[in-house]
Amino acid sequence: MSDQKNTVSMTDNRTGKTWEFPVIEGSTGPDVIDIRRLYAETGMFTYDPGFTSTGSCESSITYIDGEKGVLRHRGYDIADLAEHSDFMEVSYLLLYGDLPTPPQKAKFESDITHHSMVHEQLHDFYTGFRRDSHPMAVMVGVIGALSSFYHDSTDITDPRHRLIASYRMIAKVPTIAAWAYKYSIGQPFIYPKNNLSYAENFLQMMYAVPCEEYMVNPVLARAMDRILILHADHEQNASTSTVRLAGSSGANPFACIASGIASLWGPAHGGANEAVLKMLNEIGHKDNIPEYLAKAKDKDDPFRLMGFGHRVYKNYDPRATVMQKTCHEVLDELGIANEPLLDLAMELERIALEDPYFVEKKLFPNVDFYSGIIFKAMNIPVSMYTVLFALARTVGWVAQWNEMIEDPTQKIGRPRQLFIGEVQREFIPLHKRVSKNRELAPE
Q1: pLDDT, tens digit, for every residue of 99-125?
Q2: Among 128, 161, 178, 231, which is disulfide-ready with 155 (CB 3.0 to 4.6 Å)?
Q3: Long-range contacts for 338-344 (Cβ within 8 Å, ≥24 apart)?
Q4: At 162, phi and psi to the nearest 5?
């Protein structure tokens, strides 16, 4: 979509030399400057820590406008999808580019459902982990091991292999995630049921036990389905970029998704909703809110208000509006009242939304704030919060991975650096070296 008539000029003031670079226009959003020839023509690289001003790929999957609070998948607003669609339909949309017809949706759901079982030897794979292992550690290990169980779908040059691997990952991640939870509490693994929806299946694998019948609450199932939709994809974030970077080397798809899960585990990314609950526990009581809000406003105080504001959204997080509604539906359905931590969260939300400081800086509650409250209400342990994020985001990673593989212009990722270390030094023999008094790590 490059328009060679539009260019930008760059001048080196040291030499007076000028170069022209083409501007590429997308269908919407900011234009980009095509600097692929920058090093070849100038001998220089750009410097962009965190890649906040760098476009690493072309994509037609997800569009975000952080200033306006817009999130669209394949052109559809996230609020419309969360209100009128379900996770399987959104998954089809992300993978194929269009919403499915009724026959297409029925076949897609059937295919995913019938891939939800995992190889029985994976059952034994879990016993290699300690019972107190973090479920995300288990997820990284088990997902990464899938290539050894399903090596018949790891040829990334074969479209059929890519499709089968994509379906397998989307279908099996709920089973693997639920089993990580069951293993941590010493309960028997529960197998998926083909008569349940995607969200229902996950809930029954989480909470059912062999000795009694488990009935999935439809309100909680719908809430879980919305949570999955709201987390399905989010453009070129850290974990998605990790998946693409790993995939650019030709790594098998299961390894690529495992790398995305590892990246998501960080508290600045998928661990944010877990951090919200830790923050609420630190605040402790509604009476302490003013004190902690003052700490949050103090730039010299290390305390941060987790679950408020967003790196991308400079306005209200469009997912938070849907999540707020879902949060209150869950609390009403479960009849939760006078639960100290949830009361604290609701009061913190109310005060922050009315505080001029937070309103002026547009530090509104984001999707992590409300999802943490919902998970708490549903008795989902804190250690599983990021696992649920990974469960939802798998379809986005898979869609992004497929798009990258099919892009003929995509090369192996190779970021550059601004080197600030020592220049060439002469080697000094061991007996002539002088100590620099560096403290060694304790044993």
Answers
A1: 999 999 999 999 999 999 999 999 889
A2: 161
A3: 339/377, 340/285, 341/277, 341/280, 341/281, 341/376, 342/373, 342/376, 342/377, 343/286, 344/280, 344/283, 344/284, 344/285, 344/286, 344/289
A4: -60, -40
- Which residues are known to be catalytic? 310, 368
CA dist., res. 73 & res. 94, Å (int)? 7
Q: Closest Cα to residue 343, out of 280, 275, 273, 274?
A: 280
Which pLDDT tens digit goes with each residue over 283-327? 998 899 999 999 988 989 999 888 887 778 877 788 888 888 898
Compute the 3-state secondary structure of the chain and give helix, strand, coil in percent, each to the nearest 5.
Answer: 55, 10, 40
| Per-residue model confidence (pLDDT) at position 2 | 42
All structural domains of the chain: 2-55 (2.20.28.60)
Residues β-bridged to residue 77? 72
Which residue carries 């406003």 as its tokens?
A: 297
Contact 241, 266 (CB under 8 A): no
